[in-house]
Design brief:
Elements: E1 2-4, H1 11-24, E2 29-33, H2 48-59, E3 65-67, H3 70-74, H4 80-90, E4 97-101, H5 102-107, H6 114-120, E5 122-126, H7 130-145, E6 150-152, H8 162-170, H9 181-189
Parallel strand pairs: 1-2, 2-3, 4-5, 5-6
């Protein structure tokens, strides 16, 4: 499970999914855009349906990737424990992994019902840079003491944020290498992230 606001989904997200597929020999990565992210402010000018569609466009050629609208269908705040409970029912014979960025990995013990999350999935974190690895490893050790199974990705992935990309789009700047061409075309066609 790789959840997030994906506002918009970018090449860093895709590289991260690919890296975990390789490291953990995953059969599939479910890309799950949130309806309302409980942990951060979302740019409300872009609908959940637009973010979902951008995810579908971005991963359409990746055989391991599948986009799920499970949280958008549920509406309300997107709580990970609820999504994992649904996925555990849906994929009864599968082992579940939760892919998170560094910030989310560092705060997951404060999420709603972390004990349920830990019981259902291995928590996977990715450092933003080499300095982050030690901090994440220390957090992984702590999480293990409170019942979590953890995996840290040590391979570097592109460090870019959706916030930076939104600013570039607002300023009419290039997003080459940060977004797939098809996602950028969708954004331009639908005039997303442009302040009126």
């Amino acid at each position: 499970m790789f959840g997030g606001s994906f506002n918009p989904i970018h090449t860093g997200h895709i590289q991260l999914a690919q890296a975990f597929v390789k490291k953990l020999s995953l059969d599939r990565v479910l890309i799950i855009p949130t309806y309302i992210p409980p942990h951060k402010q979302c740019d409300n000018s872009v609908s959940p349906q637009d973010r979902l569609q951008m995810c579908r466009i971005a991963v359409k050629d990746l055989p391991f990737a599948q986009v799920s609208d499970i949280e958008i269908q549920r509406k309300g705040a997107s709580y990970t424990y609820l999504t994992l409970q649904e996925l555990a029912q849906q994929y009864k014979n599968d082992e579940l992994f939760l892919i998170t960025g560094a910030d989310m990995f560092m705060s997951i013990q404060t999420w709603k019902h972390p004990e349920i999350i830990f019981s259902l999935a291995t928590i996977c974190g990715v450092p933003r840079n080499n300095d982050d690895i030690k901090v994440l490893q220390k957090q992984a050790e702590y999480l293990q003491t409170i019942g979590a199974k953890t995996e840290i990705l040590d391979a570097g992935v592109i460090t870019v944020s959706s916030t930076e990309i939104r600013k570039k789009i607002q300023n009419g700047e290039s997003t080459d290498g940060l977004l797939t061409n098809e996602v950028r075309e969708y954004i331009d066609k639908n005039k997303l992230y442009i302040k009126s």
